[in-house]
Design goal:
Structural class: mainly alpha
Protein name: ANTAR domain-containing protein
Shape: elongated
Organism: Shinella fusca
Number of helices: 2
Order of helices and strands: HH
Number of strands: 0
Distance between the termini: 55 Å
């Protein structure tokens, strides 16, 4: 039985025509984009993002 990540790795390589370097470049670029979005979200939350609603009757 294959590990799920092995299947994903095979799919990613296939999407890049078997070019491992290009697959890695794409994954690194996607990781960088996710890190940037997380940083923006963290800043937004620190600037008074959504606040929990008060409990009923308060």
């Amino acid at each position: 039985m294959q590990q799920p990540c092995s299947d994903e790795a095979t799919e990613i390589l296939a999407l890049h025509g078997g070019d491992a370097l290009e697959a890695l470049r794409t994954l690194i670029a996607e990781r960088d984009a996710v890190e940037e979005r997380l940083a923006i979200a963290a800043i937004a939350m620190g600037l008074g993002g959504p606040h929990p609603r008060p409990a009923c009757g308060r």
